[in-house]
Specification:
Elements lengths: L1 H8 L1 H5 L16 H10 L4 E5 L5 H16 L4 E6 L13 E4 L4 H30 L6 H15 L3 H17 L5 H25 L1
Parallel strand pairs: 1-2, 2-3
Helix pairs in contact: 5-6, 6-7, 6-8, 7-8
Length: 204
């Protein structure tokens, strides 16, 4: 049942040209938790899929990853079988139930969830515009908006705006030795470089 749900759920991001990353399908030399947290930070939103047939060890990992994603401020899409019980900490979170007798309704709910993600991206775009046009810009807040909007949309415009934020910092940091601002400027540079590289990889 888990495999069937995954198969249906992944049809929607493919249709919208959204690349997905499966935590279970990745490997690396880093500590497991560090690797998972890195994957979550580098994505726009998190989808969790489980059923009443999901083994307990996998369910523990899913709950942990959901906690990481919530901590990182990622929109959550929780998908479960009709008979499965949601983790206690997420009982107040909306989720989508899979009923193998009504797949059409399930697909419709998946589409609605992705439409909501699109709305969140548009909202982040508005918030970023407000941040950039403020009389006294908060560069950290503006960067957070640009980061979220880019991860949700892959729109290079948000990388351009991140560079705009960095240029504002450049002039100030060069004449003031403030560690926090230097760190923010470095994070902006890394974000833009990795974002450009990701876009080039997607094209090739």
């Amino acid at each position: 049942m888990d495999s069937k749900m995954v198969q249906i759920v992944l049809e929607e991001p493919a249709r919208r040209d959204i690349r997905s990353k499966d935590a279970d399908a990745t490997t690396g030399g880093k500590d497991f938790l560090e690797r998972i947290l890195g994957l979550i930070r580098g994505t726009g939103f998190t989808i969790a899929i489980f059923s009443h047939e999901t083994r307990p060890t996998a369910m523990a990992n899913i709950a942990l990853e959901l906690g990481f994603a919530a901590m990182c401020g990622k929109p959550l899409v929780i998908i479960k079988s009709k008979s499965a019980t949601a983790p206690s900490d997420f009982k107040r979170t909306d989720w989508i139930d899979y009923d193998d007798h009504d797949e059409d309704r399930f697909r419709s709910k998946i589409q609605q969830a992705f439409d909501t993600i699109d709305e969140i991206a548009r909202f982040e775009d508005v918030l970023l515009d407000v941040a950039l046009n403020a009389r006294s810009i908060d560069c950290a807040v503006a960067f957070e908006r640009a980061n979220k909007a880019f991860l949700l949309t892959s729109d290079p415009r948000f990388l351009d705006q991140a560079e705009q934020i960095k240029r504002r910092l450049d002039a100030f940091v060069s004449s003031h030795e403030i560690d926090d601002l230097e760190r923010l400027r470095s994070e902006l540079s890394t974000f833009v470089q990795q974002g450009r590289r990701a876009l080039l990889t997607a094209v090739s």
